[in-house]
Write a structure and sequence with these properties.
The complex is a heterodimer of chains A (263) and B (152). With 263 residues, chain A is mainly α. Chain A has 13 helices and no strands. Chain A folds into 2 domains: 134 residues, no CATH class; 116 residues, no CATH class. In chain B, strands 1, 2, 3, 4 and 5 form a 5-stranded antiparallel β-sheet that branches. The termini of chain B are far apart. Chain B has one domain. In chain B, a hairpin with a 5-residue loop joins strand 3 and strand 4. Chain B is globular and about 55 Å long. Classes of the chains: A mainly alpha (263), B alpha+beta (152). Chains A and B meet through helix 1, helix 5, helix 6, helix 7 and helix 9 of A and helix 1, helix 2 and helix 3 of B.
Chain lengths: 263, 152
């Protein structure tokens, strides 16, 4: 097993852990996607009227309350196997590919996504990792693709923010933190009432996101950015409750660390 | 900017745009008002979902928190659909409206087991979660049935 394969295996285990937690969450709210819930398949399916008949029949079958829960159980099992299985590329390829299709079907069930960016990055990781297990050369390419997607996720988010006046003057950060949609810690709400503090914090966020490509420049800088990234996602959990983002983004970090070492 | 082709919409999760908290406007929330029976007067408008304060215990498993985040994401989809609504179809027939109604019904049936009557709305909100300007107001619905039948 070469180094790229080792990193691929580590990222697989981390995304497996993340999917395991996500699936447990789905089990806890299973009523919400039943026919007595919010995302009733009998209603959502009309959104997919344009699909071929055969595919629509398949979706009707797999999205029924019973089989959708069965599919989630399979997702739980495969995620667990991904964590515990030793390096055996054929199995990892199979587990990851099936997990990719299940996760894609989940996005369809929730009309695009359940948890936005964390669903999108999960899909990218699963697809790239499965491809990476086909051949060692593809392993390297997969790790590079994952790294570039994650780096661009920070960079593009920062680029969009810096163009917004409300982000530059601190209004946006203050607004999100004090929004009644969330229950951010009171101490943070009080601090960000000061326009200068919210402006400074806003700039810190923008600077961190825009400068994230520097993560590839030096081993010490890599460690700095990955630790900062972990803290950034943890603070997003504390403020907005975005726990899934922490696990999915951190799952990709070994790929970035590996690519940084190659430069 | 939305994607017009339904096929492209299907694969949108594979080509993300990586926009997070980019555009801050006003806060919009779902509000409801409720009465147990016809003779009662309605309660004041109450915010439906507010994310609970995240606790460390929710770091690994946060089902309710993520459900509320999904409701908040749905608000943006609903607003987009209100703006681009084709008047040929009543808005109540659209998927966005149905999911909205399901969100409200799902929450209220757990709160008021004995049933009653409710109305909901999407409105901009101040920092105290009080409604400011209405964006969409629903008809009255009965909470007695499992599907939230229209009352009037």
């Amino acid at each position: 097993m070469n180094e790229a394969s080792t990193v691929l295996l580590l990222v697989s285990k981390l995304i497996g852990f993340s999917l395991l937690l996500q699936t447990l969450e789905f089990f806890k709210i299973k009523e919400s996607f039943s026919e007595n819930g919010i995302w009733k398949w009998s209603e959502v399916k009309k959104e997919y009227y344009y699909l071929p008949q055969l595919l629509k029949k398949f979706l009707d079958w797999i999205m029924s309350d019973k089989y959708f829960l069965d599919m989630l159980s399979l997702r739980f099992l495969l995620s667990f196997l991904l964590i515990v299985f030793p390096f055996w590329p054929v199995f990892q390829f199979f587990f990851l590919l099936v997990l990719f299709f299940i996760t894609f079907l989940i996005t369809i069930r929730f009309r695009g996504s359940f948890n936005g960016g964390s669903d999108y990055l999960s899909l990218i990781l699963l697809l790239c990792l499965s491809v990476g297990f086909i051949h060692p050369i593809l392993a390297k390419a997969a790790l590079w693709y994952i790294s570039l997607q994650v780096i661009s996720s920070y960079f593009l988010a920062g680029l969009i923010k810096i163009k917004e006046r409300k982000w530059r003057d601190g209004t946006a950060l203050k607004g999100f933190i004090s929004s009644p949609s969330y229950q951010a810690p009171l101490i943070l709400i009080n601090y960000t009432r000061d326009q200068n503090i919210s402006k400074l914090l806003g700039f810190c966020v923008i600077f961190f996101e825009l400068s994230f490509p520097l993560v590839l420049t030096h081993p010490n800088i890599t460690i700095f950015y990955l630790v900062a990234g972990g803290l950034f996602h943890f603070s997003n959990f504390l403020i907005f409750g975005l726990n899934r983002f922490f696990f999915v983004w951190c799952a990709s970090y070994p790929a970035i660390h590996y690519c940084a070492q190659l430069i | 900017m939305g994607i017009d082709s339904p096929f492209l919409n299907l694969i949108k999760p594979l080509i993300p745009s990586w926009k997070f908290y980019d555009d801050f406007e006003e806060t919009r929330l779902f509000f409801y008002r409720f009465k147990k029976n016809e003779s009662e007067t309605f309660s004041d408008w109450i915010p439906l979902y507010q994310a609970p304060s995240p606790k460390l215990a929710h770091f690994f498993i946060n089902p309710q928190g993520n459900l509320i985040l999904a409701a908040q994401s749905h608000i943006q989809t609903l607003i987009d659909d209100i703006e681009h609504h084709d008047a040929k179809l009543p808005f109540e027939e659209t998927l966005s409206y149905k999911i909205t109604k399901n969100f409200i019904h799902y929450a209220l049936i757990r709160k008021f087991h004995e049933g009653g009557f409710y109305q909901f709305k999407l409105a901009s909100s101040n920092l105290e979660a009080k409604p400011l300007e209405d964006i969409m107001v629903s008809p009255l619905y009965s909470l007695l049935s499992n599907i939230g039948e229209e009352y009037e």
